[in-house]
Amino acid sequence: MTAVRESQQQRRLLRPTSKVLPEHARAHNRSMVLQHLFHFGPHSRAELARATGLTRVTVSDLVGGLLAEGLVTELGLRAEGKPGKPGTPVGLRTDAFQIVAVDLADDERMHGAVLDVNGEVRERRSEAVRGRRGQEAVDALLALCQELVAAASCPVLGVGVGSPGVVDPEGTVVQAPNRDWYGVPLAAELGTALGLPVHVANDANTAALGEFTYGGASGGGLLVLTVGEGVGSGIVLDGALVQGHEHAAGELGHVTAVDERDDIDGAPLGRPQPCACGRSGCLETVLSVPAMRRRVEGLAPDAAAAALAAVGRRLGIVLAPVVSALNLSEVVVSGPKELLDGPLREAALAAIRERTMPVISSDLDLRMTSLGEDGALSGAAVLVLSGQLGVT
User: Fold this and answer.
1) Percent of the chain with pLDDT over 70
2) Burial class for 69, CB neighbours closer than 10 Å (0-12, 13-18, 19+)
């Protein structure tokens, strides 16, 4: 229990980005109570009132409703060292529900899991992609979700999906070229078929949420780079997830990184290659997992290291203006460690430092994710916690 409490206290809260309207007051207050219990563990009603700034009457009413819903439980009397009746701690029922999460970033397999509210994986399942695209890929995803829901040991609060591409707030995949998804209402289709709330967001954004909520990352200036079948990034600034004008913030994978005039790398990247988006020379044509595997296939260790360093240098060139413009403190990389860690990561950091002011990049931390392969799954679980309980 102590370890769980310490883990909860290390989490960070996302800063709200929209104005709370009067008609939303109760839902907002409810989420404040749940959020405090989620991050800081059991508290009495009086402590919750002090922590949230709500009145004791309001907190008591909210707690009564949460008890009736089975989301919280009373943990017994606790002496507070003060005159009067001892406080009764109220805690979030981590055994009351589970969450289904799916990560679609991998080029070979769809990864899914059943998680508890603390982000711990209880069951895992996966499904081979086998080149499926369009509706066939949606059907395979639905089958995986159905299998995961059946594997849950208690009621499922909802389903979270981290999808490649641009995803709008309603969970429609506006465009994901690698999956041949254009205007696909993924959340609505899955929700209807499963009979559960479904929340879909860009896979890099979900990875950023996972790193921010469970991975101990700072929210001052964080970019999480996801490398799989494609390349994307999620950005958290001053505690807020950056969405962008068309919900496409962080689409670095389709920034042109190689063109016909390139001659600045010690280990040439070759001619620009066609990209799934219809252009050529995009960053993901050299940095995606399939592209890197092709690049190092059959090479001796030293040659493979040089080839990965060339890719890392190009990544650093792409990231340098982003790091400088946003004054980032952390860049977290998620993907196969054997490809991304070592020469590639070191070359990327060196290129960033060559191209930015020391005050910007001297303290920049460019590291692999602390959550391993579960970063995007943890973030997909946060989508559900946020959407269903108001917890971030």
Assistant:
1) 88
2) exposed
Return the residue matching tokens 């507070």.
Answer: 80
Tally of domains in the chain: 3
The residue written with tokens 């989620």 in the block is 38
- For 345-374, the pLDDT digits (tens) are 999 999 999 999 999 988 899 999 888 778
Rg of the Cα atoms in the chain: 22
Q: Provide the β-strand partners of residue 101.
A: 113, 160
- Specify whether the CB–CB gap between 222 and 212 falls below 8 A: yes
260 or 116: which carries more pLDDT confidence? 116
Task: Identify the CA nearest to 124 among candidates 104, 92, 152.
Answer: 152
Band the pLDDT of 14: cuts 50, 70, 90. Answer: low
Residues 185 and 229 in one domain: no
Using alpha carbons, list the distances in angstroms from residue 367 to 335, 364, 370: 11, 10, 9
- The span from the CA of 153 to the CA of 155, in Å, is 7
- The reply to whether 226 and 189 lie within a common domain is no
pLDDT, residue 3, reads 44
Q: Which CATH number is 183's domain given? A: 3.30.420.40
Residue 137 contacts residue 112 (beta carbons within 8 Å): no
Please say whether the beta carbons of 351 and 318 come within 8 A: no
Of the candidates 23, 58, 92, which is a domain's last residue? 92
90-92 vs 72-74, strand pairing mode: antiparallel
Question: pTM above 0.85?
Answer: no
Q: What is the mean pLDDT of the chain?
A: 85
Of 153, 120, 126, 123, the C-alpha closest to 140 is: 126
Q: How far apart are CA 359 and CA 347, in angstroms?
A: 19
Place of tokens 């400088």: 324
Distances 297 to 23, 238, 304 between C-alpha atoms, Å: 59, 41, 8
